[in-house]
Design the sequence.
């Protein structure tokens, strides 16, 4: 795979993750978050089951599946105790965490990547807060700690995935398989009613925001280093604005434009790095 194609994969992955945010936000008003979470990963498991490789029992694949599923679950629980804005800001910690952990697999933090990371963090912070800090109290220690732990697990997942994908082989479907396996116990956390609406929403999330998005992300990791991948994936915040502007009649403010420009600039900066 060429670097250009890998970057396109990451942009598409961030698009699917980004536009899924408003869908989840709208769905949880009608469906239990536990039900949506459980159905999403159960369906994704069924989708990847025919694609699993013969070496799916390797401990590394199971570890990555455990990290990914645990991070999703911790994020879900944490969001019950904190605000969406505070959770999103804490999640930004994944970029410096990935940059730091990447040293363990021999990746260097170049000046270009460092500047791009600063632009990404600035742009993402502006998009999330709209430069309105009145709602930021960080009063829920339990919720915020759970969100940070989820973010840390995703950072470890990203770095280990990069190491495994760089070594070659067909590992993508195996990782998604184990993510689904470790997400199955979430059915015991709440009542799953299997309504038609819940199944349809979960199916859309499973196909586009789980199987397809993670496939594109993991395949791109065979070529793109972990820090650069996270910088490009930050575009999901930009893409998340699109449904809000079109369907929720949200106004495009100057802070949104500035945040998007910072984020896009960071992507162009690392895209040109060899």
Sequence:
């Amino acid at each position: 795979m060429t670097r250009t194609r890998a970057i396109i994969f990451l942009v598409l992955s961030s698009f699917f993750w980004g536009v899924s945010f408003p869908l989840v936000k709208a769905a949880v008003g009608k469906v239990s978050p536990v039900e949506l979470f459980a159905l999403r990963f159960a369906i994704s498991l069924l989708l990847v089951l025919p694609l699993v490789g013969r070496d799916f029992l390797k401990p590394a694949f199971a570890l990555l599946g455990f990290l990914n599923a645990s991070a999703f679950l911790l994020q879900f629980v944490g969001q019950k105790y904190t605000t969406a804005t505070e959770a999103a800001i804490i999640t930004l910690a994944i970029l410096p965490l990935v940059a730091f952990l990447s040293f363990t697999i021999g990746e260097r933090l170049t000046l270009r990547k460092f500047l791009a990371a600063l632009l990404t963090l600035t742009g993402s912070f502006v998009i999330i807060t709209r430069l309105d800090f009145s709602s930021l109290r960080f009063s829920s220690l339990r919720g915020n700690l759970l969100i940070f732990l989820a973010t840390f697990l995703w950072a470890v997942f990203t770095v280990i995935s990069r190491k495994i994908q760089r070594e070659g082989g067909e590992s993508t479907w195996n990782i998604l398989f184990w993510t689904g396996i470790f997400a199955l116990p979430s059915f015991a956390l709440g009542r799953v009613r299997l309504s038609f609406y819940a199944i349809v929403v979960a199916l859309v999330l499973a196909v586009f925001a789980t199987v397809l998005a993670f496939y594109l992300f993991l395949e791109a990791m065979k070529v793109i280093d972990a820090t650069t991948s996270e910088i490009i994936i930050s575009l999901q915040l930009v893409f998340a604005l699109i449904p809000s502007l079109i369907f929720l009649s949200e106004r495009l403010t100057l802070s949104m434009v500035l945040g998007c420009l910072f984020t896009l600039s960071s992507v162009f900066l690392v895209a040109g790095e060899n």
About this structure: The chain is about 75% helix and 0% strand. The chain has one domain: 3-107+136-224. The chain has a mean pLDDT of 88. Residues 3-107+136-224 form one domain.
